[in-house]
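Below is a filled-in request sheet from our internal design queue. Each sheet records the structural input a requester submitted and the sequence that came back. We keep these sheets so that new team members can see what a complete request looks like end to end.

REQUESTER: design group, bay 2
PRIORITY: normal
MODE: inverse folding
CHAIN LENGTH: 229
BACKBONE (tokenized):
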């Protein structure tokens, strides 16, 4: 199991925190191993704990009015998963683990008290939430008619390559278990539609699919493609 000191160093919002904050966090935090497919919390569920992802990968998603799954965010190591729950309101999203993961659990009220004494931690928490808001704005743009067909798929794969990419002999490999079905859930589209769009992007040499992994041969070329009028 990962030690608490290793977990503290892995969580991004703690990197600029005061040295005294470490002892305060350790006094309230616990580490939890979570299996793939397990949920940390569900939409509309009362949640009194904030979670930081120490290792692994998690998905935040909503279920729409006709029962379809729409993935909003995919997060990896170091990210906070539910800063919005600093408010004393029920969860407004579902959180499912995509891999076996380790999370740091932080009781909300105790974390608030620590934040009150550490301005750097406050700033880091606000910046983390601000980044999520900016990403939501981009998603709204990319789910309207401003981007259609293959360009929506291209935009999503490019973003995933930035967030979860590793160098590969063929370009940048998206280092996560990304199926066409899951990509469709991220886009709010039908699997069959996304499968056709992926095939077209592959035929144009903008992406590659090898051994169930998506590879971006040239990120700049893919970026120019979805930005084209």
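RETURNED SEQUENCE:
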């Amino acid at each position: 199991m990962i030690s608490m000191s290793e977990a503290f160093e892995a969580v991004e919002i703690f990197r600029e925190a005061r040295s005294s904050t470490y002892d305060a966090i350790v006094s309230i935090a616990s580490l939890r191993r979570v299996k793939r497919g397990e949920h940390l919390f569900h939409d509309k569920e009362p949640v009194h704990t904030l979670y930081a992802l120490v290792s692994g990968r998690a998905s935040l998603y909503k279920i729409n009015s006709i029962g379809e799954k729409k993935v909003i965010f995919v997060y990896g190591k170091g990210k906070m998963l539910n800063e919005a729950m600093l408010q004393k309101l029920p969860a407004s999203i579902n959180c499912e683990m995509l891999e076996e993961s380790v999370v740091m659990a932080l009781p909300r009220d105790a974390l608030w008290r620590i934040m009150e004494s550490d301005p750097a931690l406050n700033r880091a928490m606000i910046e983390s939430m601000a980044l999520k808001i900016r990403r939501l704005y981009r998603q709204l743009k990319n789910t309207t008619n401003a981007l259609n067909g293959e360009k929506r798929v291209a935009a999503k794969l490019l973003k995933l390559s930035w967030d979860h990419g590793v160098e590969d002999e063929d370009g940048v490999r998206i280092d996560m278990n990304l199926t066409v079905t899951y990509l469709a859930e991220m886009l709010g589209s039908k699997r069959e539609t996304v499968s056709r769009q992926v095939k077209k992007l592959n035929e144009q040499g903008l992406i590659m699919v090898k051994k169930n992994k998506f590879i971006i041969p040239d990120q700049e070329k893919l970026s120019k493609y979805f930005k084209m009028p």
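SHEET NOTES:
- The mean pLDDT is 91.
- The first strand starts at residue 30 and ends at 34.
FILED BY: M.R.
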